């Protein structure tokens, strides 16, 4: 198993992730509706909004997966946040980076993974919008575009959360005397 490398600007990325104030928060319909939709249109058993923290990946939204988090070292999303485009693994059993990964050899038995990085306004990639299947497959151009579009919508939702959190941290304006 290949452990994902850390982004060059990992401390800035983690700082942006933490400014979202979203880790370990309850599920939200705005994200859950996106993952349910993705599972349906891509006909996959698992769709996630995954946020990659320092030692774990935590799922803000999960469709078809009971786990709320996994270790970062075994995460596919840890690899996906290293690039701007979709990270695609057509058959994890045949991929030397993942063939012996516990998420491949055991539950949830990942064979196919496609993750589009979530992108914040400051350029940071805090996680991914990803789809997972138990069988090998590929994505055509239409599917790639739709996965990127779903990641863009999820990113906009995260950006709105960040703006709200920063607004709440600002000291209130005093009325003129």
Descriptive key words:
177 residues; alpha+beta; Beta-Lactamase; 6-stranded antiparallel sheet; 34% helix
- What CATH architecture label applies? 2-Layer Sandwich
Classify the secondary structure makeup into a structural class: alpha+beta
Provide the β-strand percentage band: 15-25%
Q: C-alpha Rg, in Å? A: 17 Å
Number of spatially distinct domains: 1
Helix content class: 25-40%
Walk across the major sheet and give the strand order: 3-2-1-6-5-4
- Looking at the structure, the CATH topology is Beta-Lactamase
Order of helices and strands: HHEEEHEHEEH
Overall average pLDDT: 93
How many individual helices? Answer: 5
Note the gap between the termini: 64 Å
The CATH class is identified as Alpha Beta
Number of strands: 6
Overall outline? globular
Sheet of most strands: 6 strands, antiparallel
Assigned CATH superfamily: GAF domain
Oligomer: single chain
Taking pLDDT < 50 over at least 5 consecutive residues as the criterion, the unreliable ranges are none
């Amino acid at each position: 198993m290949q452990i994902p490398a850390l982004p060059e600007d990992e401390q800035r990325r983690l700082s942006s992730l933490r400014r979202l104030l979203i880790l370990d928060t309850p599920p939200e319909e705005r994200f859950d509706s996106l993952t349910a939709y993705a599972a349906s249109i891509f006909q996959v058993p698992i769709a996630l909004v995954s946020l990659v923290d320092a030692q774990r990946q935590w799922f803000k939204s999960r469709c078809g997966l009971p786990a709320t988090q996994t270790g970062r070292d075994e995460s596919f999303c840890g690899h996906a946040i290293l690039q701007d485009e979709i990270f695609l693994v057509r058959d994890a059993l045949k991929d030397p980076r993942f063939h012996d990964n516990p998420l491949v050899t055991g539950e949830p038995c990942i064979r196919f993974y496609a993750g589009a990085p979530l992108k914040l306004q400051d350029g940071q990639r805090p996680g991914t919008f990803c789809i997972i299947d138990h069988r090998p497959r590929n994505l055509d151009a239409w599917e790639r575009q739709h996965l990127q579009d779903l990641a863009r919508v999820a990113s906009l939702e995260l950006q709105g959360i960040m703006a709200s959190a920063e607004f709440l941290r600002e000291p209130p304006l005093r009325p003129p005397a």
